[in-house]
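S1.2 Input.
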Amino acid sequence: MEELKKELEKLSKAYVDIPENEEKILIPFVKRLLELPMKERRKLLPVIRDLQWIKSKFAGFSSETTCSAARAHFLSAVQFVCANKREMDMAYHVKFDTLCKLLPLYYPTWLTDFINDDKTWLNFELNYEQLMQLINMGYLKDIAPSRIAQVLPWITRIRNKDPKGNDTFNSELLLKRDITLKEHIWTIFEYESSISYQDDCAKEAYKKGVTARDESISAALYRFSLDGHLDRERLLKATLAAFHRSFKKDMAGWFAGFFETLQPTTEELLSLQEEMMQIFTSPYTKPVNVMLQQLKSIASEKGFRYQEFIERATTLFFSSPKNSLLTIYALFEKIVAQHPEMKEPCCITLCQLFLKKDESLQKKAANFILKYGDISSSNLQETLQSYQPEMFQSVHALLSLFKPQPAEEAHKDDANAGETIHAEGNRTGETSLSEEPSPETVRICREDNHIPFPANKEDFLFQLSRLFDMEESWEIETTIAAIIAFHPQLDKEDFNRMEPVFQRAATIVANGWELYEDLLGTFLLEYQRLWAQKDTSNTGILRNMFTRLEEKLKGIDENREAYDKRSFKRLADWKPSYSNATCFTPIKQLWLNVIRKIKGGNAFPLLSTPTHTPAYVQATELIRRLAVYQKAGTKPCPWDFQLAIARCAMEDKEEAIATARQLLQDEYLHLCLFLLDENTLPEPPYNQPTAWVAAGLVKAPETEFEAFKSFACNTLPHNYLTGDYEWKGVKPKKEPYETDRRLLQLDFHKWHTYLEHNSHQLWQEHLIINSNYNMDDSYYMEPLLCCYPNRPEPLIAQIITCYMAFGAPQEDNKRTLTCALRMLLSFHCPLQEMSLLLLSGSLLFADKTVRSYAAELWVEGLSTGRVNNHRVGEILARLIRMELAPLKRFTTQVYESMYKRSTFHNHQLEALLTVLISGLPDKPVTGLKQLLELYLELLTINRSNVTDEQLLQRLQEWGTNSNLKKVTTSLNNL
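S1.3 Output.
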């Protein structure tokens, strides 16, 4: 076998991928392997895995790159006859011609299941025609519909042999096999596929003149529906049904465009009204827009179901964009023209437009009501009255005649009535808003957010069984702390009850990709080892697993699979895969300390286990826990001590100081007094230097204490530990609003410099999220943020650097920023520069959910005195000057979430906009008119006027712009 391994290595490294070598070298070598039993062939798998990668070292760093295409081709063919389905990770490199030569020699039982697995990226690169050939040759029994949907969109594409040449397309290939249009084509209406991308490519080829006609699948299906190759009725219904299959946005958009491509007739549309109106519940705007346009074309027809449309259209007012709402408006115009009895229902339904913070839309609704509404209708009057607080002042004036009036005022002049109603509208808008009380200190540790500890062993075992299903990080940390407390009470029967969660941990470590979950699973398996070492029986799945581990470690079995290799990873050796992230190092060290505690019979509690959500440790409880260590003469784990101090709730300080004087002495007493008493300075001895530094960062992060400068752990610049970074301008962009992922110029992204000065002793020194890749850190962002509830700035800076992209955001960007904003909402610390930058940048972010969380953070932060409103305005102006995002995003979010929250917030919003507008560029930016209109409306409601000299000067300059002249004049005349 050793000779065979050496031969494999020699042949694969020297292999040149030409047909002659395949016949004379590759196939004969495979035939020799097939003479051996599978058990022997499998011994080559570790060699194949090693040869897949070319390893190198540079400046102390190791790297791996993929091997050459020729070597990969050779190794993949060998792996095909040695591996099982799970291990076959080089199938992508097996060419179809080679596969056809291998299958007569060796037919694996897993082949059909492997090819039909549409969830893996490691499959054979087989196209539709090749799959059909395998069926004809008898090697494939059937093809899964989802797999067909993946490959079918590529059927019309003909690759150009020249890499720089243009691919061509031929839709007639859809007619090559009867089964394609009879059965297979319908799979793209039921499963995710790349149909949208392929169609775009085909249409682009037509535009460039590569093809003589539009050869896209959408155009081909339209032709086939007319010439009888496809059932047109089925095609239309299948297209509409596709919107209910939870497809992604691009797929839903393609089906919407395809429905238009089919050009349904009036008769077809009338027969499909029910299916079309059902699409109003779609989460995407394009399908809804298309259906509204199609319904608009038949709104004047006799068979149009206008009453049902009015009812169903009600749901669209809350989430639809402006163009959809204008289409609904046009539909209502057609409905009342054909059916006068529907005037009042249409007027009342259109009142929902008054909830939109868009003056032009509100005026549209007002003009419709003026045209078709009955002034004497009490129902309409009452409906309008309920929407008055949301109306713009100009709309109040338009609808003044619809306000109920006392009889003696009924004969007043219309103009006077309108003026009176305008003033009334102002007062109504004001009195409907609540006055914000003076900011009150919200207690951090309360009864309603106290975290319960398992009361007994049964509670603990139940909590442990849920470990991988817990949504809150404090639940996981409480469970880990409970392991220390309850381990001495557990027996063999309890261990058997714990086996399912250990099995799940093994599965996660072997197959999972979420880093925090992987670390948690590794910790739990490390804990399980403590049991396995005591268990002398040879029964049970886990015991057998660890028997194999011992064999592997002793060198008895060197050929274990990758599954075992990952499953038996020790906690001390754990590191994140495909990442240089260091943020897990302190957590790993903390959990290693837990294992050491259990192994040594040490039941002392962790200092850092939260007592109150989301991640706070009550000061008196921290002191009591510390007293346990002092009494035993034992030092706590430095990582645990730092984290406990970072989480200490800075309230009830007098009570905590009294408790400390009663229970603690010497260094522990001095440390707690320094942390809790503003006037106490550091006092030696300093046997816990990392804890002293942590206390300084919580107590006075802006201060560099002289006593700490000589500590071995105090090696990084102070602003690295506090997160007090300057942020600079960005590179000039080639395109407007081009995404720039990095706002901050941070030195710690220079890895060599950072590593040279890192003492590796402080939590803040390990905050590199990911230096090489963004692997969706959102899944573990909450546990990381929960380590710094008093000062999250260093981590917030990392999040901004990696995820604050202002272009089209990825899902991980949205999830990570949302998580960060949500956690800042739950913390009680004042927002410093990095958090204010996160807040301001999120108000300009492309995703609506992120903007909504940022708006709530602004509202809550002002109420509790945590947000510097003036600084937010300055940051927003600076970001707009950098042209990182369109101003419209901010204006829209203000209307939706920040405007009219309370009288207090309206005045704060006025102050914010004053700073923002004053800091905008001299040249009017896109969207400035809408912002100034909002500012005018806000000043009117607040009964204020423009007093800022810089802003008055800016308004005078902008007044020369014809588009801004009207609104600037109104602002100057207030």
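S1.4 Remarks. The first strand starts at residue 53 and ends at 58.
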